[in-house]
Amino acid sequence: MHLNASADSIKFRLYMRDQCDGSITLTSFYYFTKSGDSSVFKPESGTYVCKLPSLGIYKLHFLLNEYPLTYNFKGQQSDTLNGPKVIFGYPNVDNPEFSPGYVVCNSKNAEGRIVDYFKNKKKRLTGTFHNGKLSGKLIYYDLNGEIVKIQRDNKKNKRRNRN
User: Fold this and answer.
1) Are the CB atoms for 154 and 133 separated by under 8 Å?
2) What's the domain count of the chain?
3) Quick one: pLDDT at residue 7?
4) Does one domain contain both 22 and 47?
5) pTM of the full predicted structure?
6) 101 and 156 share a domain?
7) pLDDT per residue over 52-88, tens digit each?
8) What residues does 39 pair with on adjacent strands?
9) Are residues 109 and 59 in the same domain?
10) Termini Cα distance of the chain
11) Distance between CA atoms of residues 133 and 99, nearest Å
12) Are residues 50 and 94 in the same domain?
């Protein structure tokens, strides 16, 4: 995350670090909401820049996160989000027989016990997988290491959430 504070607004750009290959890219797949306000703040088209009207507490909703992250903007700061290593989707392979499941680094089915981390070294999620399917429960954590969601797959391998 990178932002520049001014008297009028905060200019925000979100960067994502790919945990698999280490690359860092600018992204526009996010938006903010502010506590007590129904407004949604999105990046301006083609610029990757989101203008926030004032300092304060905002929720960052990011395409690859299962839940929003809370940020308290008090002035200029800089950060880069680690993108998740494990996502629910299709492996990036040319095989029409693959069904949706959990994939690691967008390329292979999740296998065994996996722990994913935020940049601050706190856990993002923990789970055990077999051939891309959840085996037991998947636990999501917030930036402070607190559990925010527990997910189990039912017998038909549909995702079931429990907060």
Assistant:
1) no
2) 2
3) 47
4) yes
5) 0.69
6) yes
7) 888 888 888 887 776 788 888 876 555 788 888 888 7
8) none
9) no
10) 28
11) 10
12) no
For 148-157, b/e burial (b = at least 16 CB within 10 A) is eeebebeeee
Tell me which of 47, 82, 117 is where a domain ends. Answer: 82
| Cα 114 from Cα 93, distance rounded (Å) | 21
Least confident of 30-34, 65-69, 159-163: 159-163
CA-atom Rg of the chain in angstroms: 17
User: Can you give the residue range of the structural domain that contains 94?
Assistant: 86-162
DSSP letter for each residue of the chain: -EEEE-SS-EEEEEEEE-TTT--EEEE--EEEEETT---EE-PPTTT-EEEESSSEEEEEEETT-SS-EEEEE-S--B--EEPPSEEEE--SSS-TT--SEEEETTTEE--EEEEEE-TTS-EEEEEEEETTEE-SEEEEE-TTS-EEEEEEE-TT--EEEE-
For residue 16, give the nearest of 110, 113, 87 by alpha carbon: 87
Same domain, 36 and 108: no
Residue 137: which pLDDT band, with cuts at 50, 70 and 90?
very high
Whether 90 and 153 map to the same domain: the answer is yes
> How far is Cα 5 from Cα 26, in angstroms, rounded to an integer?
19
As a residue count, the chain comes to: 163
